[in-house]
Every structure is written in structure tokens, then in C-alpha cells.
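[[Per-residue structure]]
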Amino acid sequence: MKLSQPKSARIINRCRVLCELRGKNNLSKSELARILELNKVSTGEIVEELVAQGLVRETGKLEVSNGRRPTTLEIVKDSRFVLCIDIGSRNISVALCNLLGETVRFERFPCNTDCKVEEFCADILKSCVRTMKLVQPEQILGAGIIIAGNIG
């Protein structure tokens, strides 16, 4: 990713908006702009894009003493998921997590080091397929893999 490119900056700011919304409920676009030190127009465009993709929704209006009532935002936690795979020395864990980091499904099984590499990988893939059947394929954002130790 070339950080000097406007597209890269937009991707980074989009992630910043999602992270801020993940940590706090009932933020408005103007509050997000202030917290992230972005201009209101850019923040509004990012939020509108996230709403159009179904990742964020408008939840209501804030009560204020004067002026326009700002619209609050929240993450649609079950709109997308991440597959998490932890290959340890004794166990393999496969989890499916929503956008808030909550575990939707978790599976752990012993690490069989006495088998062929193909069988070892097939066991992991079978667990991933079982886990992914809970959601639509387009809802999977990606996978994160953790491997303990050296790989030979």
C-alpha cells in the first residue's frame, strides 16, 4: 500500500472510523470527524460508503440543546465475519468472529503431528468449512492465521 496515494489514505481512515465506532456507541459523523481529526466532508463520505455496504447503520437522533440533532451511528456487527485459525503445538483452534470481535463459533481439536502434511491441512480445512457454513461466503472478510513455532 502506497501511503502517499489518496486511495490508501481513504482505506486507512475507513478503518479508523470502524475502530472508533467499535469502541464507542452513539457517535455522530461530526463527533467522528473531531475525534479522528478529519474534515466533516471526508468523514461523511466514508460513513456513507460504510452505510451503503451495510457495515454501519444510522440508529437515531441525539438530544441536543440547540441546533440540528445529529444522527448516531453503530456497526452492524453481523454484516461481516473473520475466520481465525490458531495452529498451536498441541491444539488447532478455528473461530468465526463478527465485526465487534465477538466469537460466533469456536472449535478446537488436537494437533495430529503423526500424519502426513496433506492430512494435517485437510483437518484444518474441514474445520474451516464447517465453521464458514454458518454465514454466506460473501460475508467473510478474510482469515487470520497464527502459527506457533517454526514451520518445516
